[in-house]
Every structure is written in C-alpha cells, then in structure tokens.
Amino acid sequence: ASTSWGCGGYWLEGHTCYYFHEMWTPDEATLVEENEMGINFLELATVLFLLEASGSHFDGKSITLYCDNDVSVEMLTSAKSRTAKMSALLEQIDSLVSKHNINIYFEWIDTIQNKLADCLSRDSFETFKEEITKRYGACEYVQVVIDPHVRDIGEIVRETLGDLDSLEEVAGR
Fold it and tell me: What are the start-end ranges of the H helices in the chain?
C-alpha cells in the first residue's frame, strides 16, 4: 500500500500472474488521514482486500504473504495491536483466514525486494509487467477484481468505528 496512490499485490502460479492494484479515492484518503489510520491501516486493508477477493483461491492451502512494512507484519504475526481500530481490522483478516482454512505466514520483505508490489501500489503497471517478464519469462496476467463494497476503505473505517462505538457503550455500562 502507499498513502499517495493506492494498493496492490500479486502472486504467481506457474506462468500465470494474478495481480490487483487499486487507487484510493479522495474521500478515502481524507477519511484515513482524519482518523489517523495511516500506512499501517492501509497495509492491513490491502491484506483484507486480497483475502476477500481471492480467499477461496487459497482454500486449504499454505501461503506466505510478504509485506515491506515491519509494523504491519508484526501486527499480523502477533494478532495484536495497540489500537482498537487496528484490532478490529485484524479480526476481519483472521475471520477470512479461518473461513478459507488458510495456513498463512506473514513475512517482512525489504523495500528493494518489494519493488514489484510497490509498482502496483503506485500505478506503474507497465513497469510491473516488464519486471515480471524479465524475472520469470512470459506470463499470462489475470487481474483480481475486488468488489467495490470490499474495496471501500470508508466502509471498513465506518465498520471499525461502529464496532468501537458498541465496545465503548458496553465498557461504559
């Protein structure tokens, strides 16, 4: 994920490259900024997008998900966060991992090695495609489509904040 353009990711199976790249809307960028959710929230939201859009593709499989944000990887591996907002997002991710019976490992990758995913999160699809071809040979490219209701950062934030409101009500009783 990037705070400036959007998010993206990919995986390879044989000579098929599955990828997604999505641009943040101006409303989403403002919403994330106003709620102080920054890059870690966006990184976790990107994982959620992938699992929502492609979780059934990984049913019963073991996969490794690489991320160049060490704080996000720490939260994903420990399933702990210092904020309730991030914890609510982690809970959504855990729910999808369980639903699809995915054995998932989260690993940190340095930014230099993450160049390909960064191309997708910064709207450089042509560079991404050139690098994939150079590294792995000719590939068939399949764009993973993320449903608009899943892709809506605003909805995730509203759900998360709604969850927080109900938690605060319970705690206040």
Answer: 26-34, 38-54, 70-78, 84-99, 115-121, 125-136, 148-151, 153-172
Residue 32 has φ and ψ, to the nearest 5°, of -65, -45
Taking the C-alpha atoms of residue 77 and residue 107, their distance in angstroms, rounded to an integer, is: 8
How many other β-carbons are positioned within 10 Å of the β-carbon of residue 58?
Answer: 20
Q: What is the pLDDT along the chain (173 residues), one digit of tens a residue?
A: 888 888 999 999 999 999 999 888 777 777 767 766 678 888 998 999 999 999 999 999 999 999 999 999 999 999 888 887 788 889 999 999 999 999 999 999 998 888 888 999 999 999 999 999 999 987 899 999 988 777 777 777 677 666 555 544 544 44
The C-alpha atoms of residue 19 and residue 150 are separated, in whole angstroms, by 16
Give SS3 for 120.
Answer: helix
Taking residue 133's Cβ as centre, other Cβ atoms within 10 Å add up to 13
Report helix angle 84-99 to 153-172, nearest 10. Answer: 110
User: What's the rounded Cα separation, in Å, for the pair 72 and 6?
Assistant: 16
**What whole-number distance in Å separates Cα of residue 51 and Cα of residue 84?**
21
